[in-house]
Amino acid sequence: MKKHIDGIHTYLLTLLAIGSLLAHAPAYSGDTKQFVDGAHFRLYYKSTTTPVPLNEIHTWLLHLYTRDGEPVDGAHFRVYGGMPAHRHGLPTQPRVSGFGDGHYWLQGLKFSMQGEWEVWFDIEAAGKTDRVMVELEL
Amino acid sequence: MHHSRCSRAHVARCLLAALACVAGVVHADPVTAWSDAERSLLQLLWIGNLPPLPPSPGNRHADETDAAVLGHRLFFDRRLSVNGEVSCATCHVPDLFFADGLPRGRGIGETARNTPGIVGGAYSPWLFWDGRRDSLWSQALVPLETAEEHGGNRSRYARILVSDPVYRSIYNSVFGGLPDLSDTARFPPDASPFATGKARDDWLAMREDDRKSVNRVFANLGKALEAYQRRLVPGRSRFDDFVESLLDDRPSDALSADEIAGLKLFIGRAKCVTCHLGPLFTNHAFHNVATPDPSARKPDYLPGIVYLFMDKPDPDRGRYDGVRQALESEFNCLGEYSDAQPSDCAELSFAATDHRTTLGAFKVPSLRNVSRTAPYTHAGVFATLGEVLDHYNEPPDAPVGHSELQPLHLDERELAQLEAFLHSLDSTADAPAELLESPFQ
After folding, report:
1. Structural domains of chain A, count
2. Do residue B283 and residue A93 have CB atoms under 8 angstroms apart?
3. Residue A6 domain-assigned?
4. 3 state SS for chain A
């Protein structure tokens, strides 16, 4: 009987897992360059260490474009985030510095636990403000 | 044909059936069967996964033998205190896994915090329960000048290094340039910025370059202590033997059935590995786990109504204050007594200071030898592992900030199994025997 219940349990769990895979794009693992769209800007991001490392300070490369595809320089970023499930923030305070043609370094990121993380970007450029979020699963 | 029945239309169903069968096998023997996910977690916890010692960029002498010899002697030297009775080993007792078995450390007086063990400390980017220092060498300097601990001051300690012929000789061969402190008008016998009264006035009256000379000797004293403490790393435990057998697919009797069940909970439903991950069973980060604050507790002798209207002490804010102290310390990674380049100091440069991350958060301690290092928490409020596990099972609200804990809903038997597992993490330090005792015996 127990085996039977376990079998149904696993069946349902597997269905749920497959369902959630279909419903959402997989969270960022660092292997590829990806983007996220805000109201005004498109932010590309790529970890320079792959996969995104656990418990190690590392750097991402960012590219910021308008929704028309023009690179945006001189943007001011505020970066924050954390693990919603554990109600804590990022263990570090990352910083963003630009180096032209819409390119920026995001330095000082660290993810100290396995699980789901969110990294939020408040972007201010050319008189416009935007907010985008990247989800990660470590 | 068998595979024709698994045609395209039925692939998903066949896959699920296969998964269900595998799950059935796993569940048939929960004690000996481990999923791939569980195996990868066990490998992360295994001591064989402990990397080589990380560099200590602030201390270019950290891995020099002579520096460790000097540090070993200093660690056990009771002259490094205001009354000649307190050494580092007074609270970091080798036979007690370099802790002291007390709720809160006791040197000259009682401190506000539990004494952490120091084995494996070289792997931690932050030291102290609140991370108020960012290296082992700068950590070592703090208790030496804290009134409740060693109670002395840097000027006095520099004089001991100059006047002791053994210390003078090793110091000069490792660091060079031990200054002449014989002019007591320029170099008062007792002086420190953290002292009170005359010793503080004397420090403030010193010339700036003389203060820096003393600071340099004091920093080097810490660097010698770091060189010694870096050599104390944890050894293999029964848990490690068990995992090694498992990874080699060999049978093992290193753990009992209850301990194995506890391990399954540890990496599973009890979610301990959320923070206690890695071969030292810690992510070296800071978390608010609602540990009780004894400073906020009502003394038994006071009626509740009186306590209600009393001025109460500020709660211990942990990392919130600790990170600010680390950033201000003249002995941090970016300071002038550090040998590091600014690019080596990422932990300090990018340290989070916001209240959401830091308020009421304390460092996640290693669990190696946890069964032998009671009492527990930053303030030593839990006498037994059972009390600790009860706290995690039914967490209270945090005394300050926001707790990250959720109830675990474990029953009595499961709590006992978890506790049994924690006993399998006992081991002696992996260090030469002579480093585990006083060099003065």
Report:
1. 1
2. no
3. no
4. CHHHHHHHHHHHHHHHHHHHHHHCCCCECCCCCEEEECCCEEEEEEECCCCCCCCCCEEEEEEEEECCCCECCCCEEEEEEEEHHHCEECCECCEEEEEECCEEEEEEECCCCCCEEEEEEEEEECCEEEEEEEEEEC
CB contact under 8 A, A112 and B283: yes
**Burial bucket for residue B147 (CB in 10 Å: 0-12, 13-18, 19+):** middle
pLDDT 10s digits, B169-226: 999 999 998 999 999 999 999 999 999 999 999 999 999 999 999 999 999 999 999 9
Which CATH number goes with the domain that contains A112?
Answer: 2.60.40.1930
B50 and A CB contact within 8 Å: no
- Residue A4 inside a domain? The answer is no
Q: Measure the CA angle with vertex B285, ends B279 and B288; round to 5°.
A: 125
Domain that includes residue A111, residue range: 27-137
Name chain B contacts of A107, Cβ cutoff 8 Å. 350
Put simply, the answer to whether A89 touches B275 (Cβ < 8 Å) is no
Does A8 fall in a domain? no
Return the structure tokens found at B360. Answer: 């009421």
In the numeric block, which tokens belong to residue B25? Answer: 């096998």
The answer to whether the CB of B306 falls within 8 A of the CB of B386 is no
For testing the chain B interface, which of A113, A119, A138 should be mutated: the one with the most B CBs within 10 Å? Answer: A113
CB A90 within 8 A of CB B352: yes
Given B19, B284, B404, which is nearest A88 (Cβ)? B404
A115–B19 CB contact, under 8 Å: no
The residue among A21, A93, A107, A117 with the most chain B CBs within 10 A of its CB, best to mutate, is: A93
- Reported as a single tens digit per residue, the pLDDT across B317-366 is 999 999 999 999 999 999 999 999 999 999 999 999 999 899 999 999 99
Higher pLDDT, A105 or B300: A105
pLDDT for B361-391, tens place per residue?
999 999 999 999 999 999 999 999 999 999 9
pLDDT of residue B25: 41
**Mean pLDDT (whole number) for A28-35:** 80
Query: Which of B45, B271, B319, B350 to mutate against chain A (most A CBs within 10 Å)?
Result: B350
- pLDDT value, residue A86: 87
Domains of chain B in start order, with CATH, are 1-30 (no CATH), 65-233 (1.10.760.10)
- Is residue A20, in this structure, part of any structural domain at all? no
